[in-house]
Task: inverse folding
């Protein structure tokens, strides 16, 4: 379900987590910080949404009933998507993630995390994603002028 922020053109975040109570709290924090949040409980639904709509960020819980956040990240990268991904994980899973440097998420948050940690991570990932996009666009423009 999509909820629209009161701000104009807010970044769109797809949040993937099967826990409704945690998702409600998560939504409140991000919504009032100015983001548009779409919550989906299953990875299969998230994959469909990612292929049909534009998102600026995916926040995925690593352990879900149908597919792990890590496996969804693998599918995204195989489809050549550079969508920023924040993976919510337990500390033990971080070693598994680091074994696959080509599939590293943009950031990880270790559960349980605070609202402040979440907001700082989201803000930082979106900021650097915007910088990368602007640099990529600028280099394409300068190459085209040559």
Result:
């Amino acid at each position: 379900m999509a909820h629209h922020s009161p701000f104009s053109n807010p970044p769109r975040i797809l949040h993937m987590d099967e826990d409704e109570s945690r998702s409600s709290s998560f939504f409140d924090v991000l919504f009032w910080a100015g983001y548009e949040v779409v919550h989906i409980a299953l990875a299969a639904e998230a994959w469909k949404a990612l292929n049909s709509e534009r998102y600026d960020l995916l926040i995925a819980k690593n352990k879900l009933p149908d597919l792990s956040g890590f496996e969804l990240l693998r599918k995204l990268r195989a489809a050549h998507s550079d969508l920023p991904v924040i993976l919510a994980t337990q500390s033990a899973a971080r070693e598994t993630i680091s074994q696959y440097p080509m599939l590293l998420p943009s950031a990880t948050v270790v559960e349980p995390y605070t609202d402040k940690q979440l907001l700082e991570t989201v803000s930082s990932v979106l900021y650097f994603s915007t910088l990368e996009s602007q640099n990529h666009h600028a280099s394409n423009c300068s190459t085209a002028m040559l």
Notes: The beta strands are 2-3, 12-16, 36-40, 57-61, 85-89, 107-110. Residues 5 and 53 are 17 Å apart (CA to CA). The domain at 2-145 is CATH 3.40.50.2300 (Rossmann fold). Residues 3-7, 141-145 have pLDDT under 50 and may be disordered.
